[in-house]
Design a protein that fits this description.
There is one protein chain. The chain has 340 residues and is of the alpha/beta class. The chain has a 7-stranded parallel sheet with strand order 3-2-1-4-5-6-11, sandwiched between helices. The longest helix is centred in the N-terminal third of the chain and has 21 residues. The protein is globular and about 55 Å long. 46% of the residues are buried.
Length: 340
């Protein structure tokens, strides 16, 4: 198949594009390679994609442009006929949305509108896109299930991703565009994002600097290893969304529809206390962390816990990498990449 992967210079997008090339699909990557975090890491990922394409012989083309630029998106879809679109580009980060909300409007709302319109007019068979566990917001019923309400976001980032889910439904309903949204739960692993806790903790512990532990360490997260996430994304993309025959408009389930629309959690189904996660990093590095305990940050949630049984039931998703093993793999990559 020929597949568009947006955000292909990003953490998850890079891994998805790599997996597609490895299995022989033709990939078009699209990314503006912005400086939200170190662009050198993004450039290194892109260089790896070039090497993978050369080794596998799979077709690969990269477009360096902004998805908020409608003309560039239209040009891309006019030039290429896509069997699938996997939309992973976004302005990520909970805390940054408190400082720069306009970036989230451009990257998460305007860009997503351009993708929806292009998929509509070019009759793409299936759009799979990234959502987030952050949409559950003020909900404290654990584990998070897709049938739970997601209308009380605690940050603007989560609000824009919840908006994506609603926007996708309108296109599925009005134009019959099959869409699948995936709510990611704390993804980590090699080539990960420097703004996320696993990377920040590893870097600071390795350099002998204190780590900032928010909510005095009283967090648990459904840390999900990147390989498991990629497995779920490809399974979901390969299974085109269809209307749910059991959907009832008198008692509407929020994750299904009479339209070809689906929402899934994609996590490890096994939340880990933050202290245990830090201990896994300490063990992998062979260094004890210096901890600075701080209050809960604005917009943050104490705990996340995914119920991914729907994704397993419908497409066979089955996470298999434990946190201890995943952290070992991440730390090994970190030490190799940064030669620490």
């Amino acid at each position: 198949m020929k597949i568009l992967v947006t955000g292909s210079a990003g953490f998850i997008g890079y891994h998805v594009a790599t997996a597609l090339l490895e299995r022989g699909d033709e990939v078009v990557g699209f990314d503006n390679v912005n400086d939200y975090y170190d662009p050198a890491l993004k450039e290194a990922r892109l260089a790896q994609l070039e090497k993978t394409a050369a080794r596998t012989g799979a077709g690969y083309h990269f477009i360096r442009a902004n998805l908020a630029d409608q003309a560039k998106v239209t040009e891309c879809f006019n030039e290429h006929h896509f069997d699938r679109v996997i939309h992973l580009a976004a302005q990520a980060g909970v805390r940054y949305s408190l400082e720069n909300p306009h970036s989230y409007v451009e990257s998460n709302l305007v860009a997503f509108t351009n993708i929806l319109e292009a998929c509509r007019y070019h009759q793409v068979a299936h759009l799979t896109y990234a959502s987030t566990s952050s949409v559950y917001g003020a909900n404290t019923s654990m584990p998070f299930r897709e049938e739970h309400g997601a209308n009380h976001p605690l940050q603007f980032y989560a609000a824009t991703k919840r908006a994506n889910e609603l926007m996708a439904h309108s296109y599925s309903h009005l134009f019959g565009l099959p869409t699948t949204g995936l709510r990611f739960f704390t993804v980590y692993g090699p080539w990960g994002r420097p703004d996320m806790a696993p990377f920040k903790f590893t870097k600071r512990i390795a350099e002998g600097d204190p780590i900032q532990v928010y909510n005095h360490g009283n967090h648990s997260r459904d840390f999900t290893y990147i390989d498991d996430i990629v497995q779920g994304i490809l399974l979901a993309s390969d299974h085109i969304a269809t209307p749910a025959p059991e959907w009832d408009s008198a008692a509407p389930a929020p994750h299904q529809s009479a339209a070809p629309y689906r929402l899934f959690n994609i996590g490890n189904n096994d939340p880990v206390h933050l202290g245990n996660f830090i201990e896994s990093i300490e063990n992998a590095l062979g260094i004890k962390a210096i901890k600075e305990y701080l209050p809960l940050q604005p917009g943050d949630v104490p705990d996340t816990f995914a119920d991914s049984s729907e994704l397993h039931r419908l497409v066979g998703y089955q996470p298999s990498i434990s946190v201890s093993e995943g952290v070992k793999r991440f730390v090994k990559w970190y030490q190799s990449f940064y030669q620490s």
